[in-house]
Amino acid sequence: MRSSVSYILSSTTSEPNMSHPDYEQYSHDHAALLILVKHLGSQLKNKVFNKFYERISRVNSVKITDSTGQVRNILIRYIKDHPVENNDWGDFQTHRRLLGLISLGKYDSQQELNEICRVHESLKVKYTNTLYDSRCILFGANDEREYPSDNSSPEEQSIVSSSEVLSSKDSSENSDITNEAQDKSSVKEETTSSSYNPLTEGESSNKDNEEIKSDKVEEKPKSPVKTVREKFTTPSNFKTRALFYNEAEPCSDLENQLTEFINSLFWVLESKRLERSREKLERVSLLLAPFEKKDFVGLDMDSRNNKKRCTGRMTKHLGDLCLQAGLLSESLSYYHSAAETLKSVNDWLWLGAAYEGLCAASALVLYPNIQRNVSLHRNSSLQEGSPKRSNSITTPIEVTKKDIMNMLPPEEISKKYREAIIHYSKYQNAGIIETEACFKAARISIEQNHSLQAASFLQNVVFINLTLSEQEKIQRFETLSDLYTQTGFTRKAAFCQRLAATRYVSPQNPTPNWNQCYNLILQSFPGHKIMLDPTEMCSNNVQMGWPLLQIQLLQELVVAAKRMGHSALATRHMTYLLQTMWKHLSPTDQKELAIQLQSLSSQCEGAPVPLVLDSGIVIPPANLSNIPVCASFVLRNLQPHLQPRKIETLKRDLGPFLFTPINFGSLERRTNKPQSKMDFLWVENDVCEVTLKLVNPLPFELKVSNMRLLTSGVVFESIPETVVLPSDTPTSVTLNGTPKESGELEILGYSTHTLGVKSNCRLRYMLNFLPLYSIEVIPALPTMEIKTSLPQSATFSSFQNFENVVTSASISLYNGESTECTITLTNTSQVPIEMLEVSIQSVLDPSLQDQIFKWSQENLESQLPLMPNGTASLTLYLYSAANFLATGFGTAELSSGVFGSSHASSIMSMSAGPSSLPSRLNSPVHSAMGSSFHGARRNELNSSFRSSNSGQSSMTTTGYRSPGALTLPQHAASSIVEGQLQLRYSGGAGLQAGYCRTCSVFLTLEMLPSLQVTNWDVLPAETSSQFYLVLDIANLTSQEMELHYTPSKHMLIEGHESCRIPVPVNRCPLSKLTKLYMDQNSGLDDRLDLDKICSEHIANLVDLRWQLLSLNVKGKATLKGITLTPNMLDIVRMSPLNWEVNINGDYLKPQEEINCDAGDCLNVCVNISNSLEKPLRQLMLTIQFYQDHQNGTHNYRLETRVVIVGGAKKLLPTLEPQGKTWHSCNVLFLTPGQYKMDIQCSTPDSSTTVPAITGTAGHTWRYIPAVDINVNI
Amino acid sequence: MAVCVGIIGKDNSPKYFTCLNPDEELGFQYKVLSSLDVVEEKLSSGNKTGSDMRELYLGMLYSLETHKVYGYVTNTKIKFIIVVDSTNTALRDNEIRSMFRKLHSIYADNVCNPFYIPDEPITSKSFDRSVKHIMTGA
């Protein structure tokens, strides 16, 4: 746009060019009357002045009916400051002339009033060249309340009437008021509203001109008497119309006064216009722009060219006046013809002005509604979110604009403006005119929505080389930025704002203003896409804006804030910079800025509170969540033994399917996501933990102090933590806190204090974190401390619910030994323990478990409730229960029946080796034989086993090979029993809420082998009421053991030795077995039952007590679970038949041997009685003789050796309960030898006549032991 | 030829920025940033005309005392900005155009790289080399 011929035509002289640009101009101002509103004196407050200024500014257009009845729309522009030099350009563009003056002042005394009047008058002198009229608005002292503000009018009148001298101007106006329009608008007193009488304007305009010029002259000599209120009067030389108001009151007629004032201005202007228009165009003098005065020195003023120049310039001048006087169409035609004329004489400057006038007039027609935004103050104005693009082209104007000749169409306006600017640019001295034209053109382009055009006009402004003061340069940038904003060029606007900001503090600027600099930088933020709230900046993953520029801007802002003396702001912005721009900073920058922040915060600590600026802008808090970086944030469950559990767990209905192959979890994606709701509980008043992993990204050690948790919901007391983080090493930090209430607790983040800045790091605003964690806090539960009297276990083996273990106890016990363990419980909380449940958990069989661990629940409950700091004790009885019986045979083998058992064992025994005797195991001889060695100890173990004839014994499986050494059975090695004593306890509010705590004591019990019954058998005793239980007992310890097996008998067993002991035991009374015999519906189970009853009988009666002498350890062994074969059972239990055998009439005692000679006749008489409670039927009594060869062979074929006289067999049809019967026969032995007599009574097989008489169908009872008969020669 | 080249994403944040003299980068960034206003304006007004085959080359965005700023916008709203020295009067419009075309083609090549995530800042060294080539006009 710049003309290439710029500066060619401009003179280099230092002519007084217009040095004060007015960036605020609109093209409409070409048509406006310029009025200066001046603040006088110091009494009037700025605020009041501004209030009135705004009120005055609202009267910016007045409709005035002229002498021809045409309504003129007069525009008025109010300004606060006007350099006198600008008036010099009044010939060039008339709207630059100051036409009116309104001064505002307040007085309390006459002296002040005088001073105000004096200043006002001097202002009039200052602008005397152009001033048409003036007003002085005076605010009286506050105490003069009795005079309503409206009362100024009568005074006015009095003034007017009394001041004759003023009649030349004022009174002539006042005397004849005829203007109808004015009458309507005036409120109270018509006399005050002054207007020119259109009829007299011709004369008065001439007078006016003189008057204005003579003002200065007349001032001093004239002394008009002005009585103001009562005491105060304006000085005599003050001859401006004064308007008196009270600043506190509405001043309702102010607008009317203004209208009247404007009217007066208009009429002066109108008269001047008419005067000018009547001049002959051929004879007009040359109008000059201020700097042109020298150019025309010596030129031929009468040349044709110059004539045309004069004419053109005057035409243009007339156009200006018409425009101001509201005659748009006239002005357009003037401008048009002026442009034609000036073009022909190459008068570029004035041609430009003519074009500009043309554009201004056209714009006024097209867009009458363009207005400056009054309410906005330049420096404090905020950026509007959307650029203002009001489109004020309305339809009525569409109609009117066609009527006007020479009017430019919208698209031509900017073209003409462009031309005008190019013409201006040819003159260096017209720089300000050009600049202003650019702004005006840009504003029109904005109105037209041609942003690019506007931008190009604005761009041109920058190129114009002006010698301006710093303040004016700043203003230029600010105006540029304002206009760029309106075009929507926010970046450009921001750029200009930043430039303006730097100008405020540039070294050239004599008065640096950091405040303004700061404000402007702040205002440029939206253009650089910087949000004031760091959370907004960080929340978008997409990086907005240009980081490099943002960093620079922020750094400048920090400096500005610091220089401003607002160190809190500096800290805040530096924090913001570090927080938001972290990833765009180089490591060295990061370090440097962090150090800077540290030094800034040493002056003012950063806190997470919003800062409010004087301008009302709120700077939101900036939190350093990057320093240190939080890598993980995990809420910790309580320690297992402190975790609350539901006292009653509801049985969950899992449906009929315990397992389904369909994994619902994989279908529901969200289950993979971390849940913000914790699935565990925290307890009121218990210390809860959150573990953070922090990384210090800075290259130096970072101290983070006062770390706390941020929570909401229930009251939570967070314990501050201080950590020193080494550089770049992840460090785990645990933050503790105590919830003080029960309910829902939300963990929102954590707070830090580092680099002198307090930050609230909320998870919501941090990447890769859930917005919050919530956790349920349940009411307070007690805590308990547990101690045991036993030493702790060295190691725990893995075990279920191992985590609950708080302490442990371990002990070694020999099998059969028992001990006590005292467990001390201490309540360490402030809540009483009201509930305490003890249970034991182990992998053992419940019955065995109960044997090993015993305690008294009642005793414990009697100690409840356990008050805070109270203790209770629980005694746990430990018993090393073990199976003392060698597990040589399975129960299945035994239960399979007599024959199966014997068969199997016989085979086994044979295969075992030659040492075992082949025997028929169920032969009665064995039992008889057994008695022969009873009580006789064999030293050699092997032989004792060999001689043992009870085939069912364990030797069949073990088959001891090694003589002398005892091979211990497998389970004989020490075994370890582990158990957990579980304590469930609760109390207080937690109990009511249904929660308890569980802790457990881990018990390790080493069970050492003591003794073992390796083998056993039963032998009939001397009396039928007893039998002998023969036990092979092995001492599995290495100590000498004393074994008490009856109350009176005891024996010593060497370590790892074995010995055989007979224990007399009462036979199992029939009363215990009655049920079995009575039960008719019995089957195979009966045998087992019988077995069990007998086994228990034995276990109860046999009391084996051992003592390890060297260790002074005592114990007890039980035979619980001893298994018996059917043959043994017969011995163990009382026979249902009572036998009484008489030989030769003598009663045969048990174990008694009979000696007789061959050939002797022996009378055998057998009496049997039934001791059962039911009859026995079909009993077969048999007497039999045989010889035992002692090698397992029994010889029953004795026909040649024994003769039986009488029946050897007798059938007893019925034997009633308690019934007796007898049988006798005679026996004759033919050859000497050893014989045995077997007496037995048998019931028939179940298949025969009486099926199932008893459970022992087909059973045989023998008289035991068999009778030995020695037949001598 | 060119003194500065910038590639700006559709969100108007820089994706790539280089200039011959690294010390002046900040200043160039300001220039390029403020030229975006013009680009935006041209784009929004260009849409109104509704021409399908939009001219990608935007021409000169604005000129400064020392530099001229040229713009070029792909159909995906990726903006290429070239700043040339305004003293270099030998530079014709056609040469600027060809520079833009070359730039566009190497940009397209870079986007084709499967390891480049679109909309991320471009850090490829080979891309940088190619751009420098174009800038120097070699």
Return the average pLDDT of chain A rounded to an integer: 73
Main sheet overview of chain B: 5 strands, antiparallel
Largest sheet of chain A: 7 strands, mixed
Classify the helix fraction of chain A into a percent range: 25-40%
Net shape of chain A: rod-shaped
> Segments of chain A where pLDDT lies below 50 for 5+ residues?
2-16, 143-230, 374-401, 888-971, 1246-1257
What integer value in Å does the Rg of chain B equal?
14 Å
Low-confidence stretches of chain B: none
How many angstroms separate the termini of chain A?
Answer: 167 Å
Summarize the largest interface: chains and residue counts. Answer: A-B, 25 and 21 residues
Q: H/E series of chain B, N to C? A: EEHEEEHH
**Strand percentage of chain A, roughly?**
25-35%
Coarse structural class of chain B: alpha+beta
Tally of DSSP helical segments of chain B: 3
Write structural notes for this entry.
- Chain B: Its main location: cytoplasm.
- Chain B: Keywords: Endoplasmic reticulum, ER-Golgi transport, Golgi apparatus, Transport.
- Chain B: InterPro entries: Longin-like_dom_sf, Sedlin, TRAPPC, TRAPPC2L.
- Chain B: It is found in: Cytoplasm, Perinuclear region; Endoplasmic reticulum; Golgi apparatus, cis-Golgi network; Golgi apparatus.
- The complex is a heterodimer of chains A (1273) and B (138).
- The longest helix of chain A has 25 residues, at 254-278.
- In chain A, 32% of the residues lie in helices and 25% in strands.
- In chain A, helix 9 runs parallel beside helix 11 and helix 13 (410-424) packs antiparallel against helix 14 (431-447).
- Chain A has 1273 residues and is an alpha+beta fold.
- Chain A is rod-shaped and about 200 Å long.
- In chain A, strands 37, 39, 40, 42, 44, 45 and 46 form a seven-stranded mixed sheet that branches. A six-stranded mixed sheet of chain A has the order 2-3-1-4-5-6. In chain A, strands 11, 13, 15, 17, 18 and 19 form a six-stranded mixed sheet that branches.
- By secondary structure, chain B is of the alpha+beta class.
- In chain B, 41% of the residues lie in helices and 25% in strands.
- Chain B contains three helices and five strands, in the order E-E-H-E-E-E-H-H.
- Chain B has a five-stranded antiparallel sheet, sandwiched between helices.
- The longest helix of chain B is centred in the N-terminal third of the chain and has 25 residues, at 25-49.
- The N and C termini of chain B lie close together (9 Å).
- The interface between A and B is medium-sized, with 25 and 21 residues.
